[in-house]
Each structure stands twice: as structure tokens, then as C-alpha cells.
Design a protein that fits this description.
Structural class: alpha/beta
CATH class: Alpha Beta
Strand content: 5-15%
Number of domains: 1
Order of helices and strands: EHEHHEHEHH
Radius of gyration: 14 Å
Number of helices: 6
Shape: globular
Number of strands: 4
Strand order of the largest sheet: 2-1-3-4
CATH architecture: 3-Layer(aba) Sandwich
Helix content: 40-55%
CATH superfamily: Response regulator
Length: 159
Amino acid sequence: MVRPIGILMVCLGNICRSPTAEGVLRARLDAAGLSERVRVDSAGTGDSHLGQAPDPRAIACAAGHGIDISGLRARRLAAEDFDAFDLVLCADRTILHEARIRKPRTSHAQVELLLEWAGLGKKDVPDPYYGTARDFEHAFRLVDAAAQGILERVRQGRL
């Protein structure tokens, strides 16, 4: 069996955007019968929420789309992640900059913006943490579109 490609979703606290992206991508891969080909996880560059479940608003938003992210727990991006994952996909340019600084020189992981890598342009996924349910829904739609782009790459064998 071929080793699955590893994709790590990264945001600041690992309680809003990145666990949502992890859950959405897993759900889309499962629905397409492709979950064996991709290993998905998420992490944050910050450490203020370590061990915590995703934000209740992120859980509710994902659940409204039939995706359960309640069992995920926040963890911090580690140096080992750059060897364990092939792609480190960042929610915004600040996170991208931070992840690139942390990437060991010997790592072959690609560190990219989530939306750009998924074909949606050089855009950030806005952090909904200080927003409303509408902001969580907007972030969900963006990461779902990114997940669809990643899914297409997997289907086409471009990963």
C-alpha cells in the first residue's frame, strides 16, 4: 500500500479555522471513498488553547453541515510536523509566515496558504473568533471550498 499523503491544517489557536478545515476535509475524503489516501490533522502556532476542544461556535457551525469536530483537541505546531506531513496549509499569511520560520531546513514539507494551494487565490481565511455565527459560516464556506479543491487534486492523482 502507498503511504498516504499527510496534510496539516494550521491556524493560530487550533480551535476555529484549522479544526474546521480538518473536519471538513476528512468528511469530504470519506464521502468520496478517498480517506485511505490522505492523513489529515490540525495544529496551531499559538499555545493559549492547548488541549481544548474547538470553539463551541465552530462545533455548532460544522455540526450544522453534518460534520462532528467536537472530539478534536488543540495542539501546537511542532518541528516534527514538518517531517510527518507533506503539506502544511495555513489559514492566513501571518500563520504562513510563522510556519515558514519554524520549518526546519531539512524538511521537504510544502508550507502554503490553504486557499491559494486549493486554487482559490492568495486569500486568507478570516479568523471568526471575535465574530458572530455568520463569521464562522463564512470561514466554513471557505475551508469547504478549499477541501473540494484538495479532493479534486487527490482524485486526479496530483497529490
